Amino acid sequence: MPYMYILNIVFLAVMYIYIERVNYMKALIMAGGEGTRLRPLTCNRPKPMVPVMNKPVMEHIINLLKKHNIADIGVTLQYMPQNIQEYFGDGSNFGVNIRYFIEKTPLGTAGSVKNAEEFLDDTFIVISGDALTDIDITKAIEYHYEKKATATLVLKSVDVPLEYGVVVTDCNGKITRFLEKPNWSEVFSDTANTGIYILNPIVFGYYKSGEMFDFARDLFPLLLKDRQPMYGFVTTDYWCDIGDLNAYQQCHFDILDGKVNIINNVKEVKPKVWVEENVEIETGAHITGPVLIGRNTKIKSNAIISSYTIIGSDNLVGDYSSLKRTILWKGCNIGKRVQLRGCTLCNKVQVKEDTSIFEQSVIGDETLIKEHVVVKPGIKVWPSKVIERDTQVNVNLVWGTKYSKTLFGEKGITGEVNVDITPEFASRLGASYGALFKNTGKIGVSSDDAAVSNMLKNSFTAGLLSAGVEVYDFGQQLLPITRYSIKFFGLDGGIHIGTVAAENDSKLFIDCLNDYGANINRGLERKLENIFIREDFSRCEANMVKSVKAIPDFKAYYLRDIINRVKNKELNYKLLINTSSDLVASIIKPLMDELGCHVNITKLEIRDIKTGRAFKTSTQIAYLLNQVISTDSDVGVMIDDNGEKMLLIDEKGRFVTEEMFMALVSLITLRTVKGATIVVPISAPSVIDRMAKEYEGKVLRTKTSPLEIMGKMVATGGQGAVMNDQFIMNFDAIGSLVKILDFMKSNNIKLSELIDNIPSFHIIKKEVECPWNAKGKVIRQIIEESNDDKIELMEGVKIYQDGGWVLVLPDSEKPVCKVIGEGYSEEFAESITDIFADRVKKIGQNS
Fold first, then answer.
1. Rg of the Cα atoms in the chain
2. CA 249 to CA 12: how far, in whole Å?
3. For 313, phi and psi rounded to 5 degrees?
4. pLDDT over 90 for what percent of the chain?
5. Torsion angle of the four alpha carbons 638, 639, 645, 650, in this order, in degrees rounded to the nearest 10
6. What is the pLDDT of residues 819-838, one digit of tens each?
7. Least confident stretch, 206-215, 261-270, 603-612
8. How far is CA 746 from CA 437, 563, 739, in A?
């Protein structure tokens, strides 16, 4: 009996400690968000003040904290702080105590919390003021103390984790790796960081007050490196980061579906129809739940309020008007016979009779929309606009262009001419790009020889000039020459526009370049996207518009530089060159003539005699292989219209694959410069490492996209000439061909002999269909199932097995995963690749 009595006392004491810890814990709400992706909802308010179910989203967070007995709350503010302070005051009206900590300049997530260090004198919880959740905070805190953690991150499994930090934990919940806002190739898990943290104050010792510091990017890597105990508490409760307009709408629908319980102090007048006080619904009005109607709102006779509609306070809905899946804020006046479908109207919007507003449109505060107006889907209207009667609105107001969430893909900006990419689009992109340089930049522009490319180059130039930058116009020019031109003139950046004909469709690509001539990095891409989407660029004054500097026929300087750099002025090779570009042909023919080569240029487009249809690429290549042999050529080359990439064929008619070309470039570099550093993607064959060891060189692997390879070459110091040569050999077909021929001549070696000097290797590539929402799960499960194997997480997941390896790589533009395998034999490479391809397929099908 005494023994049981003691056990009970101990149990009660432990429970008391847990309860006391929760009761006395303080919280810090991060409420400095500007909410640029929610505009125009956030034009007149900070993001935490955007209403959700007729209350600011931050009020729901305060109610959640209060529910879990957390009443001492700090709030970090930066954007429009007075709005939050005036609404919440000292917190007494909401049953809590609130203190405010204002950032004068943005300090990052951790930096803003450091401002409140004096207030946070014991273990505390950090939570975002602009997310919607009902997570069990008490359980999370108990988990934190149970694990004796320095930091506990609340995690949530999500379908598409690109917009969140991805976190990998071991079987005990200990965090082993995380990455902030990855792309698909970096998705190691589907477990996302919610931005809710429980922290010990010792974390403040890792950084200084007043410095820009971020939790995920800066603090947490330091804690991991220092082996501080960091754990992930995985919640199954509701959590929604209200990061964009789609998420804003969806969280309302989730609430109405009961996925999160925040509907309080309202009356349910019939199933799933909730109304606040003093709501008047006239006879003949039809209401179908789930619906919420705010106080002092009047629904007129014969109005139809359909499911998933949220109406705020002090609204009027006129006779015969119809609302479905629509959100009205406060004080809106909806006239007769109005149709609202899947749209959001901010405060005090007036919509006159016989107007229709369609899906995913957002109307800003105090806008007047007159009679017989049609607002097309996806339109954003900034506050205080007047839309005249009988108008069809199919562009955003005020700025006049349609909304696009992202611009850049794996291959820069691409789209269909005059559909996705129009002159208006190009002008706006030019102004956005110019805004990066703030009236002081010098930018080069060029295009291929297509008329539409020149048209869009002129539009882009107009946008640049309107931003006050100086423009160097290189006219019609290949992309590699534009890269060279930017460095030659010491420009701050550049743009190249070109077309690619694909069957009957004409597509266009836009490359945005930095001061080295390489494509701009991901960070600058996102910055440019934000400026473009927010239309956050200003036009310069008229007297600040500069004249365009025309640089005619710069290719002559480019060609002379190539000739000056070769060791052998007489190469004397017989070349079969295929290109469909007149511009490429006009440049390479005189160059090779001057270098003493006999050149036969073809425009390969073989057609079936019966159908007249062009053969596919494989048939074209086979024909070209035979032509190299039959014409007794030393080298065959296929050069793309852009002048950037080429396919080589040796004198025996053997096609040089992409992987063999990587090895070829590596071998030439290693034999030319002793101890050279070679930059190759993670998917490159391992034979390159063996060759580097033989020649006392070094291999630097990077992600597979051309952008990442360029960036690594540019960033690698100490071997400028080596990296410049590698850059040319990877991204300049004409320059690369000359370097290869020059090496062959200097070493008296044929292309076939050079290739035969490369040890054999076997690589297999496959693409496996994989739904977007399964990609994170695929990578996570493969990681979990590979405990006994060496794995690498630079991009996707690379698994090493039995002397071979397999790379599983989520595609960023298509619902597929790439599976690339290398083995000691063709059969083994095929086998190991098939195993993981089947695994990806099964996981995807079960998601």
1. 31
2. 45
3. -85, 155
4. 66
5. 30
6. 999 999 999 999 999 999 99
7. 603-612
8. 45, 15, 10
